[in-house]
Design a protein that fits this description.
Helices cover 71% and strands 0% of the residues. It contains 12 helices and no strands.
């Protein structure tokens, strides 16, 4: 598996492969490998976010969304906050953060984290996540999304999408964050969206 893993990763990396179509197919192959439990592709997809092609960077975010595990949150969060990325990619990353599975990670989640550690070791790079970090994935989701809203340099479109994603998380940790936005944010549309999101979050607490 080591040779296959390295070959796919190198084909997805524009430092090693100049043909954009080959890199795109390699990125798609990472999803297939994940479905078949051949490898954990998150470290590779993180690297694809540095690709010179926006098409490849967008494909990386879309693949991370399809994977949808808590281990994708740090990579998606980085993309959401990266002002060197286009607004389209950042919006997709923000949406994907809110779509990450909301249940407790349990044994399956810890297995994913361990697979990420093994993949990172094979690549000779630092692991993106640890099992302990995954236990706090709701808080991580909300922290990244709140950072988007609190940055006055971001567009209202990004802020509104971030609040929608916070509302989808529906975790109690979101309540003080949304209340702060309602009370202090300068943009009225953002405050109103936060109010709607808070209603959804509060309703979840009484289900």
């Amino acid at each position: 598996y080591r040779q296959a893993l390295v070959a796919i990763g190198e084909a997805a990396d524009d430092d090693n492969e100049s043909d954009e179509l080959v890199r795109l197919h390699a990125t798609e192959a990472l999803w297939e490998a994940f479905k078949k439990d051949v490898l954990d592709p998150i470290a590779f997809l993180d690297r694809v976010l540095l690709d010179r092609s926006q098409r490849l960077r967008l494909a990386s975010v879309q693949t991370l969304r399809r994977i949808g595990t808590p281990a994708t949150i740090p990579v998606l969060g980085k993309a959401a906050l990266d002002k060197n990325q286009s607004e389209t990619i950042r919006l997709k990353a923000i949406d994907a953060i809110g779509a990450v599975a909301l249940s407790d990670i349990g044994e399956a989640g810890r297995s994913i984290a361990e697979a990420n550690v093994r993949t990172a070791r094979l690549l000779g790079i630092p692991s993106l996540v640890s099992p302990r970090a995954l236990e706090r994935h709701h808080q991580l989701q909300i922290n990244y999304l709140a950072a988007v809203v609190q940055d006055a340099d971001n567009s209202p479109t990004l802020m509104l999408q971030a609040i929608k994603s916070i509302g989808r998380v529906k975790d109690k940790f979101a309540i003080p964050v949304l209340r702060n936005i309602i009370e202090n944010h300068q943009n009225q549309a953002v405050r109103q969206q936060a109010g709607r999101a808070l209603s959804h979050v509060m309703a979840r607490q009484y289900e």
